[in-house]
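Practice record 12: protein with adenosine-5'-triphosphate.
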Amino acid sequence: MFCIFESGEKELIQLKNVEKIYQTENGSVHALNDVSLEINEGEIFGIIGYSGAGKSTLIRLINLLEKPTSGTISIGDRQLTDLSDRQLREERRTIGMIFQHFNLLWSRTVAENIAFPLELTKIKKKQKEKRIADLIRMVGLEGKESAYPSQLSGGQKQRVGIARALANNPRVLLCDEATSALDPKTTDSILSLLLEINKSLGLTIVLITHEMSVIQKICSKVAVLDKGKIVEEGAVNDVFAHPKQPITQEFVGAHAANKVKHSGDTLAISDWTRVRIRSVDARLIQRHLSSLFGREHLLVRVLETYAVQDGSAEETIVAIQGPAEEIDSALSGVKSDGLETEVIHAYV
Ligand SMILES: Nc1ncnc2c1ncn2[C@@H]1O[C@H](COP(=O)(O)OP(=O)(O)OP(=O)(O)O)[C@@H](O)[C@H]1O
């Protein structure tokens, strides 16, 4: 049975004034510019940005696969930038990583892939076998122990990647676009697994993505990276509700438009006002939806309802048609009860 760890406010990862400059034949590339970040223990922290923003560089700096040009990186009370190569190898065992293209060993079975990081430790054979069996159970791959990666679906391959990353009981899991190669349904199942692992093991997760939906589904905090700089950062709820920077507004807008596009809605979109309603109390949303449906001059359709982050709030997107003053008055009623509402302007 899983036990639940609550994320605390204890800082675990700290990046201070980090710069990364790559030297290339065509000159230098300033990939990260004065980046400072603090990530708390037990948190799921998302870093979002467009291609070339510096996300991969940033996540690879956290386990020092890339060395910063200047600045410091620490995990717990250890400053990684001060460690010798041997100490760093040791420290890396406490940091697992999963990748967009899984990085599995194709000539090894599922069990042998998961065993790989354990081969570098002094663990006894019996213990190793038990650990592998536990990990396979944890990621839901029972029965696939002897399969080869080529015989697995994308989602199953990523489950192997997750089990392998967890083999040495890391404190931190780094996810490098871990769901970008997966379809939406498989993405959901992998994100649910990550959330479950975060809750049950108290594991701190740092992920990079270009998709706001990934951030929204599992992260509690988000940092927006643009041209090597963090331009906005905060609790996902706040950043979603009140995006300040144009790039953040773009991510949030595109996400909302995407939701409408995928909602299966066949309405004449332009005739309808689309509103996002958010509350920490799902019953309150339901109550207000009932009252919206009961209004004589309004047509109301629920396009989508979903939990945000780890289920601490719920959002519903509704389409409403009717006289503008009726819509305004209905939404004032919703707002006066403390629910957040936002008219979504970014249509398909
Ligand atoms: N090894 C390298 N040598 C030289 N330049 C690099 C290297 N790695 C990354 N860069 C450059 O640094 C910048 C940031 O790249 P990075 O891969 O970190 O961005 P990203 O946000 O992860 O992009 P993507 O999502 O496309 O992978 C880019 O201009 C890239 O060309």
